[in-house]
Design a protein that fits this description.
The complex is a heterodimer. In chain A, strands 1-2 form a two-stranded antiparallel sheet. Chain A has 3 helices and 2 strands. Chain A has one domain (6-59). By secondary structure, chain A is mainly alpha-helical. Chain B is of the alpha/beta class. Among the domains of chain B are: 87-124 and 152-300 and 418-484, TIM Barrel (Alpha-Beta Barrel); 303-414, no CATH class. Chain B is 33% helix and 20% strand. Chain B is built from 18 helices and 25 strands. In chain B, the strands form 6 sheets. In chain B, strands 1, 2, 3, 4, 5, 18, 23, 24 and 25 form a 9-stranded mixed sheet that branches. In chain B, strands 9-10-11-12-13-17 form a 6-stranded parallel sheet, with helices on both faces. Chain B has a 3-stranded parallel sheet with strand order 6-7-8, with no helix packed on it. In chain B, helix 5 (152-160) crosses helix 6 (171-187) and helix 13 (381-388) crosses helix 14. Classes of the chains: A mainly alpha, B alpha/beta.
Chain lengths: 67, 560
């Protein structure tokens, strides 16, 4: 059993900050992060700096391939 | 002389061991002897040909409001339920400050789908603000046992006020919440509930969702020191998120030595592998030594609704949700007329969404207001739309408008309806049977009868569980997971919570409309089938012959 890597937002985090921290060597990391977290993308009002909750799960890798 | 003897039944004691024929002896609210031949008693019941089992325990309910005006939690008891756990999903009626009642009430009524009139008429807040005050108000006024959770959202509201839905807590506020939780546990709470999914009437996340991991960790630490379970409602519609929450619960369980439970877990046609992955995650947590119990309900998902009021079915249709939220009927009808095309398009778009399973064509007319529409009852919207040459959305809207939005529709078997798969899931030793949502969602579906359905569908029809395994799942397993010592097992010295039933007949009756709640409107309920007698702490509280015993108040606050 494998679990997708995830993190939770730190104080004042937005997706850009999480992307910079978790995916420092990835081009367009924020967009990648958003595409891996459609549950956040779908949330009304989500922008570059709003919408994340302290209890949110933010996946830092894409969905795992089906086994 | 004994108080009560239940003679010559098949005693299925909750342990999972094979049943055995004999008598059950009861005195002073306790079980005195199990099996053998009992002496004389003031009252005797003949249970020949019947099963004698521990009373069933329902671990996921929202009877908080109903218990304020209905000590029986009608019709839970007649299904064999003798203990319920209210306060799930971060919402309990206490502790709560006086000036927070309106805010909380709106939140509770929306999330748990409790009609405003019933809630307001029934919840009189006579206990004041404290959790022990609420328990005092219940004590002596219960026909069944209550093992209450305290809600994380209300803890936050009590300590942080409006900021509870705006920001993480400070260290000082976390310390205050921890002290408050400790007080609640000392008063009799069996644990803490939290939510990662719910929203209030303004689409704002409930307070518990604003908690940083450090806050939940601190509260879990209190549970570890003072004894309590952690219940969460998670993102049950997403397997990856569910697995992430399981991992978090496992960490909390191991760090603080607590038992955790998450609810609900559903079997889905759209993601058949999802349940297997979730169980793998639970198994991995178990292998680490963590106590993580996923709750699985027995019944398939059916949702009834009108277009007149907010409903689970309208959650994914924002325009409909807005219209249904308009309180004045004339204004609502005017809004439907003004926004007709937008509403039709939104309804028609359902079938185009991924999966498409919730397309409006699958809705069925459940009940109508006007006689001229009576022949539509039981027909699908797809069928009627084809006949009329209209889209699904147009058909639904026109029919509802013809009846001023009073038409009842139902979408059956939305999921969790593959009995073989669900039966396998229920039989899994890592799965906890629960998630009935008892007392909630009153206009969407009946939350009553899940225990009967466990036997009728998964013991008698699919054979997924034996009679003894099914009884154990909803008695001793539940009591053990929740730390309800002295319940869930027929053994000398334990509380005399007992249900007598016919193993060949126990089930759930049809879903029917009931207007028994305060205020207008109906709720959906199911009556029992095949249950003979229910005993709570030694008192016969319901029987098939006499119904609910007037004045029965043997229920207690069941603490750990």
């Amino acid at each position: 059993m494998t679990t997708r890597r995830f993190t939770t937002p730190q104080p004042d985090d937005d997706l850009a900050a999480i992307a910079a921290r978790e995916l420092p060597d990835t081009d367009d990391a924020e967009q990648q992060l958003l595409s891996w977290n459609l549950h956040l993308a779908a949330r009304a009002g989500l922008g570059r700096s709003v919408g994340l909750l302290p209890s949110d799960v933010v996946f830092t890798e894409p969905p795992l391939p089906a086994s | 002389m004994l108080d009560l003897v239940i003679r010559d039944g098949l005693i299925v004691d909750g342990s999972g061991l094979p049943g055995r024929r004999g008598d059950l002896s009861i005195s002073d609210g306790k079980i005195v002897a199990v099996g053998g031949r009992a002496g004389e008693a003031r009252r005797e019941l003949d249970a020949a040909g019947r099963v004698v089992a521990p009373g069933f325990i329902d671990p996921h309910t929202h009877y908080d409001a109903q218990l304020c005006f209905d000590p029986y939690a009608f019709p839970a008891i007649e299904h064999g339920i003798t203990t319920v756990v209210p306060g799930n999903c971060s919402l309990s009626l206490a502790p709560l400050r006086t000036d927070q009642r309106d805010t909380f009430s709106r939140m509770f009524r929306l999330i748990e789908e409790m009609p405003e009139a019933a809630f307001d008429a029934g919840v009189d807040w006579r206990w004041g603000e404290s959790f022990d005050g609420w328990l005092d108000a219940l004590t002596g006024n219960l026909a069944l046992n209550v093992a209450p959770l305290v809600g994380h959202s209300v803890l936050r509201m009590f300590v942080m006020g409006p900021d509870a839905q705006q920001r993480p807590a400070t260290n000082d506020e976390i310390a205050q919440m921890s002290a408050l939780l400790r007080d609640c546990l000392d008063a009799g709470a069996v644990g803490l509930s939290t939510s990662f999914v719910d929203i209030d009437e303004s689409y704002r996340p409930v307070p518990s969702r604003w908690a940083a991991p450090e806050e939940l960790d601190a509260l879990a630490g209190v549970l570890g020191k003072h004894g309590g379970i952690l219940q969460i409602v998670h993102e049950f519609y997403n397997t990856d998120l569910t697995i992430a929450r399981i991992e978090t619960l496992a960490d909390l369980s191991l760090r603080h030595g607590i038992t955790t439970t998450l609810s609900p877990i559903f079997h889905s046609h759209a993601d058949r592998a999802g349940v297997a992955r979730i169980l793998d995650a639970v198994g991995a947590a178990r292998a680490r030594g963590a106590a993580v119990w996923p709750q699985v309900q027995t019944r398939p998902i059916d949702i009834s609704f009108t277009l007149d009021q907010r409903s689970l079915m309208l959650l994914t249709m924002p325009s409909w949700w807005q219209v249904a939220s308009i309180p004045d009927r004339a204004d609502k009808l005017a809004a439907v007329a003004d926004r007709r095309q937008e509403l039709v398009d939104e309804m028609d778009s359902l079938a185009k969404r991924p999966g498409g399973g919730l397309g409006a064509g699958g809705f069925v007319v459940r009940d109508v207001i006007l006689d001229r529409n009576r022949d539509l009852v039981g027909r699908s919207i797809d069928d009627i739309a084809t006949e009329r040459g209209c889209s699904h959305g147009e058909t639904l809207l026109d029919l509802a408008l013809d009846e001023e939005l009073g038409t009842w529709f139902i979408r059956e078997s939305i999921g969790h309806d593959d009995s073989e798969a669900v039966g396998t899931l229920l039989a899994d030793p890592h799965v906890h049977v629960g998630a009935s949502d008892g007392g909630a969602h009153v206009g969407s579906f009946s939350t009553f009868g899940d225990t009967g359905y466990l036997f009728s569908e998964f013991v008698r029809t699919t054979g997924s569980l034996t009679l003894e395994q099914a009884v154990k799942k909803i008695t001793l397993d539940t009591a053990t997971i929740w730390g309800l010592d002295g319940r869930g097992l027929l053994a000398p010295g334990n509380a005399a919570d007992v249900v007598v039933f016919d193993a060949d007949r126990i089930g759930r009756g049809p879903e029917i409309a009931s207007d028994d709640f305060p205020g207008d409107g109906i709720r959906w309920i199911r009556r029992q089938e095949g249950v003979d007698t229910v005993v709570v702490n030694g008192d016969i509280t319901w029987s098939a012959d006499d119904g609910y015993v007037d004045g029965a108040r043997a229920g207690v606050v069941a603490t750990r």
